[in-house]
Write a structure and sequence with these properties.
Elements (H helix, E strand, L loop, with lengths): L4 E5 L5 H11 L4 E5 L3 H7 L14 H8 L4 E4 L2 H7 L2 E4 L19 H13 L4 E5 L7 H10 L7 E5 L9 H6 L4 E5 L2 H12 L7 E4 L1 H32 L3 H9 L20 H14 L3 H28 L8 E5 L14 H11 L3 E5 L5 H11 L4 H7 E3 L3 H5 L4 E4 L11 H7 L5 E4 L6 H7 L2 E4 L3
Parallel strand pairs: 1-2, 1-4, 2-3, 4-5, 5-6, 7-8, 9-10, 9-12, 10-11, 12-13, 13-14
Antiparallel strand pairs: 6-7
Helix pairs in contact: 1-3, 5-6, 9-11, 9-12, 11-12, 12-13, 13-14
Bound molecules: nicotinamide-adenine-dinucleotide (NAD) and uridine-5'-diphosphate-glucuronic acid.
Nicotinamide-adenine-dinucleotide binds next to helix 5.
């Protein structure tokens, strides 16, 4: 099928950047991204590209180049579905917060709504592409909804999971390690492979069956998260044995079978996907009665929760067992650098624990708004929004955030933190001045020379 028009349902962290790159690399294809969230679409259409709803290095430039030419953002969902030959479903698939599978299974209601919407509106044949991360065998449900419409429209369903990481989304999309397409219909697979073929070498475009494709996405995230939990587990052992986790990571990473990437010990992984996708994997394994498999993967999450908790426990015990009434400055709130995304950020859980111990928290993050910080804490429902507002203040100047603080907690590895005037910061803080470096980005000797009581992860 020749693709002239693409519709993408979901203008989020995946839909936005992915479609922007597809539009850039396929100027002859019209790409329309639709969403029910009017505010988000308005932000995507904002004339000033610094107001786009998502911050990703390189994204604003591509949007500026393509928007209004062959890339469009709209709330007219039905129109875009009807016109397109290919429709990507790129909506959120969060962990269920109710009913069967609560706290474990993926909530597929948004995906199902999309399938029903497509079934209702389509008058011509469509290729429907699962871009969202979905439990293995979801394509079956989508197929059933689409094929029971009573119309004679033909639908081909493909699985095309996305492997981009936030903060490097554009880089990852421009030169992906691989593109994965799972499907039954060879024609549909090749239509999608042609679109990626505009810039991705053919030998990096993998074709599999639908189920392998769906399961590969969950497996990739599980393996990546497992590496972080593995090195974090070793970081705790390092702290008891005078081994240094950076040195251990370097030593094992030089083994070509292990490889050097994704071995940074930290306060624990965050982000909207690792936890959600592993919980989902655990749920699926349990639903097939595979309890050993489920327990094995669940341990990755248990260790991650432990890592966040022991960071805040250590902070409290070092501050003479109380943070009540003390100012703790948190540098960074995003779940990693170069993104404004805070979903499941370790900072939220560390802050919540410190607040329960009556700390006052000052937050500085170069890309995260005060509104987001407050929303993240309110979402936990640990205390009222008024209490959160009283206890947590966001600053736009890092030097103001740390002034008179008893301790600094580094939560995100933003590059700018490394270049601060740490002597000036030391002078403005209460003494002894503590730094808890949750990202191992500062130099211990330099900090100690200035006068800080410095601690990091795994050293
Ligand atoms: P997101 O929450 O940023 O965006 C999803 C968007 O879908 C929202 O704007 C929402 O309003 C919209 N939406 C929901 N239901 C809709 C409907 N019925 N009609 C129209 N719009 C609707 O989510 P995201 O981070 O882009 O993730 C989307 C999917 O991609 C998830 O399954 C996620 O697991 C997967 N994924 C995410 C990443 C990542 O880095 N964020 C990477 C790879 C895969
Ligand atoms: C991750 C995967 O890397 C992507 O391939 C995948 O597409 C995506 O999830 C998804 O499905 O959503 P993302 O969560 O955006 O991407 O970012 P990562 O770079 O993987 O970082 C995740 C978390 O792990 C961050 O909190 C990061 O700080 C932490 N991390 C990462 C570590 O603590 N140590 C490391 O060595 C690497």
């Amino acid at each position: 099928m020749k693709i002239n028009k693409i519709c993408c349902i979901g203008a989020g962290y995946v839909g936005g950047p992915t479609m922007a790159v597809i539009a850039k690399k396929n100027p002859e294809i019209q790409v329309t991204i639709v969403d029910i969230n009017e505010e988000r679409i308005a932000a995507w259409n904002d004339e000033d590209v610094s107001n786009l709803p998502i911050y990703e290095p390189g994204l604003a430039e591509i949007v500026e180049e393509t928007r209004g030419k062959n890339l469009f953002f709209s709330t007219e969902i039905n129109k875009a579905i009807d016109e397109a030959e290919m429709i990507f479903i790129s909506v959120n698939t969060p962990t269920k917060t109710y009913g069967k599978g609560k706290g474990m299974a993926a909530d597929l209601k948004y995906v199902e709504l999309c399938a029903r919407n497509i079934a209702e509106v389509a008058t011509t044949d469509k290729i429907v592409v699962e871009k969202s991360t979905l439990p293995v065998r979801t394509a079956q449900a989508i197929k059933s909804i689409l094929h029971n419409t009573g119309s004679d429209v033909n639908f081909s369903i493909l699985s095309n999971p996305e492997f981009l990481a936030e903060g490097t989304a554009i880089e990852d999309l421009l030169s992906p390690d691989r593109v994965l397409i799972g499907g039954e219909s060879e024609d549909a697979i090749e239509s999608l492979a042609n679109i990626y073929g505009s810039w991705v070498p053919q030998d990096r475009i993998l074709r599999t069956n639908v189920w392998s494709s769906e399961l590969s996405k969950l497996t990739a995230n599980a393996f990546l998260a497992q590496r972080i939990s593995s090195i974090n587990a070793i970081s705790e052992l390092c702290e008891h044995t005078e081994a240094n986790v950076n040195e251990v990571a370097r030593a094992i990473g030089m083994d070509s079978r292990i490889g050097p990437k994704f071995l940074n010990a930290s306060i624990g992984f965050g982000g909207s996907c690792f936890q959600k996708d592993i919980l989902n994997l655990v749920y699926i394994a349990r639903s097939y009665g595979l309890n050993q498999v489920a327990d094995y993967w669940e341990q990755v999450i248990i260790l991650n929760d432990h890592q966040k908790r022991r960071f805040s426990d250590n902070l409290i015990s070092t501050l003479y067992n109380t943070v009540s009434g003390k100012k703790i400055a948190m540098l960074g709130w995003a779940f990693k650098k170069d993104t404004n995304d805070t979903r499941e950020s370790a900072a939220i859980y560390v802050a919540d624990h410190l607040l329960s111990e009556q700390a006052n928290i000052a937050v500085y993050d170069p890309k995260v708004s005060d509104k987001k910080v407050q929303n993240d804490l309110n979402y936990l429902n640990t205390r009222t929004s008024e209490e959160n507002r009283d206890l947590v203040t966001s600053y736009s100047d890092p030097y103001e955030a740390v002034k008179d603080a008893h301790a600094i907690a580094i939560m995100t590895e933003w590059d700018e933190f490394k270049t601060y005037d740490w002597k000036k910061i030391y002078e403005s803080m209460k003494k002894p001045a503590f730094i808890f470096d949750g990202r191992n980005i500062l130099n211990k000797e330099e900090m100690n020379d200035i006068g800080f009581e410095y601690s990091s992860i795994g050293k």
